[in-house]
Design a protein that fits this description.
Blueprint: H1 2-21, H2 24-48, H3 55-81, H4 86-174, H5 190-202
Length: 203
């Protein structure tokens, strides 16, 4: 809608310039503005409009669609008679062309403002979602660190407990006391093999 709004301003400036200076380059500029900006933008908006959900934009586009052809014809009337009836051209410009153009520009500006507001709102919603995801990631990271610490501590105790027990019994045996109780063997891993070997030594 911004491109179409720019085209509307250019076409109105071109018709006024043609009225003031009478040079054909302003007629050409007006025609090119319709062909290159206004018509393609209008067709694109028309193509997209069935998917719109914002009622204000739908209503604004209906007004634009109703007024666009009358504006084109009004500008053409001004252009056609300006060289022979300047006062008549001024009257058409003041009573038809300018009010139509003002109405269309106001609707296009409202659509553009609404699009900007929606984009801002969507950006804020996206930021909120990203912020929520960041919080979840930090929580998961902290929980993961806690679980890792707990597992590391449990594994360390599972390994160091029997090794400490073997070391204490070895000190007792080294002092000459062979009446120590044998180690309980609860696993068949390396620690269990070491405990079994130590028990055999005590026998």
């Amino acid at each position: 809608s911004l491109r179409m709004l720019t085209g509307m301003n250019r076409s109105l400036a071109a018709i006024r310039s043609y009225m003031l200076f009478g040079k054909d380059k302003f007629k050409t500029e007006r025609a090119e503005t319709w062909a290159d900006q206004i018509d393609p933008s209008f067709q694109e908006l028309k193509r997209l409009s069935p998917n719109w959900t914002e009622q204000k934009n739908i209503d604004a586009f209906k007004v634009v669609a109703e007024k666009i052809e009358p504006l084109r014809k009004s500008q053409q009337k001004v252009e056609d008679i300006v060289s022979t009836d300047l006062e008549g051209a001024k009257k058409i410009l003041a009573e038809e062309t300018a009010p139509l153009s003002t109405t269309i520009r106001a609707e296009l500006k409202a659509m553009s403002d609404k699009q900007r507001d929606l984009a801002t709102k969507n950006g804020e919603e996206t930021t909120a979602v990203i912020s929520g995801l960041n919080k979840i990631l930090w929580i998961l990271l902290i929980v993961g660190i806690g679980i890792s610490g707990f597992l590391g501590l449990s594994i360390t105790r599972a390994i160091s407990g029997p090794v400490t027990q073997v070391a204490e019994i070895a000190k007792i045996v080294a002092s000459g006391d062979l009446s120590v109780k044998k180690l309980d063997i609860t696993t068949k891993d390396e620690i269990g093999v070491m405990a079994a070997s130590f028990n055999e030594l005590l026998d």
